[in-house]
Write a structure and sequence with these properties.
The complex is a heterodimer of chains A (347) and B (408). Chain A is built from 16 helices and ten strands. Chain A is of the alpha/beta class and 347 residues long. Chain A has three domains: 2-57; 65-167 and 285-341, D-Maltodextrin-Binding Protein, domain 2; 171-273, 3-Layer(aba) Sandwich (D-Maltodextrin-Binding Protein, domain 2), CATH 3.40.190.120. In chain A, the strands form two sheets. Chain A has a five-stranded mixed beta sheet, sandwiched between helices. In chain A, α2 (76-91) crosses α16 (331-341). The termini of chain A are far apart. Chain B is mainly alpha-helical and 408 residues long. Chain B folds into two domains: 5-181, no CATH class; 191-404, MetI-like fold (Orthogonal Bundle), CATH 1.10.3720. In chain B, 73% of the residues lie in helices and 4% in strands. Chain B has helices at 5-25, 44-47, 49-67, 88-109, 131-149, 155-175, 182-189, 191-225, 227-242, 245-262, 264-268, 276-300, 304-312, 317-347, 359-368, 372-404, and strands at 29-32, 40-42, 70-71, 78-79, 126-129. In chain B, α1 runs antiparallel to α5 (131-149) and α4 (88-109) runs parallel beside α6 (155-175). The longest helix of chain B is centred in the middle third of the chain and has 35 residues, at 191-225. Classes of the chains: A alpha/beta (347), B mainly alpha (408).
Amino acid sequence: MWRKNIPGNGFDRRGVKLYIETMKKKRSVSTGLLAAVALSAALTVLTTVGCSRKGEAAGETGPAKGPVTVASMIDSEGAILGKMLALLLKNAGFQVIDRTEFGTPDILRAALEAGEVDLVIDYTGSGQYYHGGFDPAIWSDPQGGYEMTRRLDRERKDLFWLSPAEANNTEMLAVKRDFADAAGVRDMGSFADYVNGGGRVKLICAQTFADNSLGLRGFEKAYGFTLRKDQLVLLSSGNTAEMLKALAEGTDGINVSLVYGTDGALDKLDLLVLADPKNVPPVYLPTPVLRGELARRYPELEDLFTPAFRGLSLEVLQKMNAQVAFDGRPAEAVARDYLTRKGLLDR
Amino acid sequence: MTGSRPVRRWAAIGAAALLPAVFLFLPFLEVRPNRVLAGRAVFLFSVSPSFFVLLCGVALLMAGSALSENRIPGDKRKVAGPSLRAFPAPAAAVLLAAAAGWAGSALVRGPGLPAAGGPGLGPAGRVSLGAGFWAALFVMYCHGYLSFLDLKERPLLRSLGFWLAPGGLVLLFGLGVLDDLSLVQEFFIRRVAFFRELRRHGALALGATILGTALGVPLGVLSHRRPRDEKILFFGINLAQTVPTLSLLGLLILPLALLRQKLPALAGLGVGGTGWAPALIVLCLYALLPVAGNTLAGLRALDPAVVEAARGMGMGRSRVFFAVELPLALPVVLSGIRTALTQSMGNAILAGLIGGGGMGAIIFLGLAQAASDLVLLGALPVAISALLADRLMHRLEDLLLRRGGRGR
């Protein structure tokens, strides 16, 4: 299209000559443009860096210990617990770089191992993914699983697992209460009976849960039932918010969903969690995990979070998660409320 | 280019005529028990009959403005529609937002709205924009777009009409009319984070485009100069393009983390396997293809006679390049940069997954909480800024080409 504007396209030499004469006068424009591009490239890199540095320095208040980079997963619980750590650190006079709502679980772990963040929230049962080759049963024992993960991470990765919360944020199956009443389903045992009796089931869960011998396959084996492929809706992410939304709204006839123990939905939606007396899935206790380097430099960090995490029961976490996910309260306000109630903040 | 005038006009009229149907058959708002669960559909006429009538009136006005024509006395030829054509669609959009805000407030606070089911909206209750709202907005956008095509010769009216919509929105927002809409509430909850992430998003997209330009243009020139190397260069550039963005981010974690450990100075800048650095690198790699590809195409399409003549006049190699080749190829190069910028604006979302911030942080949090209005809060600015970036680049192209352009 623009080619037709070239004067003397082809043989009109006079036109070309004239054109080139003009171009000679105007060549400064394109050189200027090039210089401008180079200059702005340099500027942008500087501002990008500046921006991120400014953001990091935002938490500074006076002469402080640290800095400690706090990071957590992108979900309600990650936000609340991450803000809780940040608040306690600031309260204890630490300089905090707040990277809560940092990324997906694998990215968070990678960043911690690479030393790009110092303190994260992780779950004891995740040890099974970080350190393979152990008897899976160990992860189903609250104390044993915690000790195992703690020992392995300390020896192999120089990461310190601090005191865990009481709440077990484990995987469970949930149904709507009216469905439970109609189908006579109370726990995993009666659910197995319902499935084996030909009851209509559509389960929504994460792909990893469905494939895991400590997940759905473990349930099937322990309680003696099998779900067909067409009875499953599998999601790639392990985030239950969408699953519980689908369960609550009955999307696609879904009537069973994966749920985590501390899900805010359990506080807000009228759901029945199917009790699992055989404790099939691993125990997942939310725990602050600290890089060894910082644990050695600031030994006081080891016990800083203990009083706060000791009171984190299933109900307390469910309520706090619900406030963030369902009521839309800022995570920091929810965390601050909790810490203030426990008398753990001085200012 | 975009159809003849009569076709355009009838399309504009049709769009306007669609509006009442949209309000009649699609739910205007959705009243939800909380920000996660789906709720009850609410139609505009049941919450606010007056706004329904008003908006239908505006639809008539829109149709009328598209139909009307000016004739210059004594000249048989029709000329573009009256200046009024610039205003109905943007005004309608502002009115639409006002209707949503007002109806939302009525639903949240109003004591009795029998048709809508009355009160009973708990403290966590939300009013979200429904399909009807978005469909109406889309119809108005189409109408406005078609009408603006006829106003090419009236730049002042065009910008007046164009700025009416955002200006009116800001005014409504400032007056607090929109405060009870779920989208606005999500904004209030994260006001600080919103602007911080918006800034980061812009810096990432812009930085990647500029870096991509700084690297892509020389690469394009190089492959033009040495056709033999072109294959290898473009193999590399295309390879970066074919690796899925997300896995590229994953692949970068290890090498960048190592780099950080080797060079502590970089760690001070926040460079690492996560954060802004890998995001910037990936976005920059993606920007390479449009920039380098267009540079090469622009240079190749040059008439060899022009270059030869320049040589014949005694210009040196670099002189020929800066004075002849580059200016002539500039339009194509610039449109490549525009593509890169628009694309980066959208792709920068992925930074949110690796701790790099940006609007992705808000979008992915919304997805994690199944809070659709939070997702919208993150996605709308991205879409708008991508459109704006495209417009601004068009402007820049016009500016550069008019001044430094080809000898006209």
